[in-house]
Amino acid sequence: MIFRGRAGNIRATRRHPSGAREPSDPAREDDLKAQLKPAIAPAWSAAESAELYGIKSWGAGYFDLSDDGNVAVSVPFNGARARVALLDIIAGMQQRGLAMPVLLRIENILDAQVSLLNEAFARAMSQLAYGGGYRGVFPIKVNQQCQVIEEIARFGARYGHGLEAGSKAELLIALASMEPASGYIICNGYKDTEFITLGLQALKLGYKCFFVLETPTELPIVLETSRALGIRPMLGVRVKLSARVSGAWNESSGDRSIFGLTTAQIVELIDALKAADMLDCLQLLHYHLGSQIPNIREIRSGVLEAARYYADLRQEGAALGYLDLGGDEYCLDVVEAIMSVLDPQGIAHPTIVTESGRATVAYSSVLLFNILDVTRFEPGQVPPPQPKEHELIGNLRDTLKSVNPRNLQECYNDALYYRGEIRDLFKRGQIRLRELSLAENIFLEIVSTIVRRLGDVKRKPPGLDGLEQSLSDIYYGNFSVFQSLPDVWAIDQVFPIMPVHRHTEQPTRQAIIADITCDSDGKIDQFIGSRGIRKTLPVHPLVDGEPYYLGVFLVGAYQETLGDLHNLMGDTNVVSVRINEDGTFDFVREMSGDSIADVLSYVEYQPQSLLEQFRKTAEQAVREGRVSVAERQAVLESFAASLRGYTYYED
Questions:
Q1: What is the pLDDT of residues 337-395, one digit of tens each?
Q2: How many helices (H) and strands (E) does the chain have?
Q3: Which of 54, 138, 224, 461 has the least CB density, counted as fewest CB within 10 Å?
Q4: Residue ranges per domain, the chain?
Q5: Does 618 score more than 90 pLDDT?
Q6: DSSP string of 57-75?
Q7: Distance between CA 410 and CA 398 in Å, rounded?
């Protein structure tokens, strides 16, 4: 087959692994492992793979490689750890009839991250003799899935861990998920009368529900609704800090941030609350610098500035007792910075609140998918010269023969020129397809030879950057970037990606990952490596008849919520597991992904109406003699079966 790649029309080898079927014996979960053992074990270790993929740097102790070459998930238990191979979980999925792709959630990791955050602040406060407390809240917008919120609320209750709501719908989730005395509810975002009414009524039920004033227009609504209901609110104010940071989403900080009050607006707020005899309702100061902030000095600078606002608002008479730091969780530095500002003024230490979202849920979810196919950009065997061969093809042959470490750039430029001339001749009808194909094949052999020789030179010649990437394979994954990894497409977010097995074999191929949508943006071409971001992913050669699985890690934040229906690819199958202390695991929940009928209904089609319309078309074909009645029935059954089917590739 001929495919167009970055090096032109080239010969590409495609392999079609059949994929593993569900094991016939449910008791044998090691069947899949046995299928995937390599026939020949080269001199390569799991430790070398761990270094290659950088798993120890991003795995946070939850993910690592076992000695037999499988990615394993490891969770803490009473000072020890229990470990389970992802391949074992995949085998269990297959036995339960769950096809790839699958979003795997690991409940223990959610629990462990909630514990880690709360206990880290507790240790920092104890070490520094901090007089206040700590309360975490999880921003529902980061992952609104019911199972995730339920688990955070259930496990976080022991710490008083609460929820942050940025809309009326999220406030309803928070009120239904939490017991009144179990944690705080922080209400951010624009708030209308209905939003504020519900929150005030929640106060009467015993919830600690804070309204964070984000804009000046919210205060009159709060005051009017409060007077009408006879309920005094718990208020917070979000300030625009001058401190700016270099992390992702740093537009949350600085003078031009969308939300938050300026110094002039804060003064007006204080005066308005004094006039309404409600300054004592102002109890929380809130700020947010951004997400994924890489520089601790910037975090410390923001905390110091916020603490200064806190001190001055206290001196103005506000009854502040809570300092909400947004998403920061650098515990010791945060606590020390607050104390350094408040202690000299004799101001009591506030309860510190953080809205840690990504740090709480990112590790808990893994997208698993199988590779369906591969395109390899490899030259075929170059045949000997033929009589009357075009002169330009002969020039390409001469260029191939002359490649050496001293003339790599020159040979590449010559090859580009000759290939361009030959393509122009083809466009004008002066050479035939077979001659063009031969020229493209020789050109690819030249590029491959140059890439091999680059290892023999000390300094890469200019103009040859990216040449290796032009020869990399394309591995076709059974998933949709737009549905499951929207941040890859929208903001170039880089997630850890690696094979989940075969790590006692050296990955000898380099590839980018393409999804199964018909969109050129449906690809992943940035990967985390041991030395930073790389353009290709090291992978193993596909083996006919054996499945090959990749995992995308740290996808628990935002990806499920932001995914769309590009090409009408719906939600994937979802599996939630809980790992036990003895290394076994339980399937806590299994949720089938969207059927084709489901996604059609999302875009206002009625599946039954579609089936009826197609039935009329088939019946007309019977009347016209194009199909028999039996053939009509088979076609209708296929149509109906497709409506019930998974939106992804099925073996």
A1: 999 999 999 999 999 999 999 999 999 999 999 999 999 998 989 999 998 899 999 99
A2: 23, 25
A3: 224
A4: 109-363, 379-468, 597-644
A5: yes
A6: HHSTTTEEE-TTS-EEEEE
A7: 13
Please report how the helices 629-644 and 607-623 are oriented relative to each other, as an axis angle in degrees rounded to 10.
160
Contact yes or no for 298/289 (Cβ under 8 A): yes
What span, in angstroms and rounded, lies between the C-alpha atoms of 259 and 252? 8
Two tokens at 430?
Answer: 């002066």
DSSP state of 95: H
Amino acid found at 301? S
Q: How far is CA 646 from CA 71, 102, 192, 369, 522, in A?
A: 27, 12, 40, 14, 19
Reported as type and span, the H/E element at residue 367 is: strand 365-377
The terminus-to-terminus CA distance of the chain in angstroms comes to 22
Q: What is the DSSP letter of 306?
A: H
Of 640, 474, 649, 651, give the one whose Cα is nearest residue 567: 649
Distance CA 303, CA 437 (A): 64
pLDDT, position 349 = 97
Q: Angle at the Cα of 481 (from 480 to 483), degrees rounded to 5? A: 65
Return the closest-CA partner of residue 204 out of 169, 166, 233. Answer: 233
CATH tag for 379-468 (out of 1.20.58.930, 3.40.50.1000, 3.40.50.720, 1.20.120.80) = 1.20.58.930
What does the alpha-carbon distance between residue 404 and residue 14 come to, in Å, rounded to a whole number? 31
DSSP 3-state of 164: strand
Q: Is the peptide bond before 101 cis (omega within 30 degrees of 0)?
A: yes
Q: How many CB atoms lie within 10 A of CB 384?
A: 6
Burial class (CB in 10 A: 0-12, 13-18, 19+), 197: middle
Whole-number CA gyration radius for the chain: 30
Token reading at 7: 């090096």
CA 531 to chain centre: 21
Separation between Cα atoms, residue 267 and residue 636, nearest integer Å: 70
Q: What is the DSSP string of 226-270?
A: HHHHT---EEEEEB--S----STTGGGSSTT-SSSB-HHHHHHHH
User: Which residue's structure tokens are 């549905």?
Assistant: 483
Q: Which CATH class is domain 109-363?
A: alpha beta
Where do we find the tokens 């009368």?
193
pLDDT in tens, 539-550: 999 999 999 999
**Residue 428 host element (H or E):** none
Task: Of 7, 10, 4, 3, give the one whose Cα is nearest residue 379.
Answer: 10
Which token pair is 549?
């699985």
The amino acid present at 253, given as its one-letter code, is S
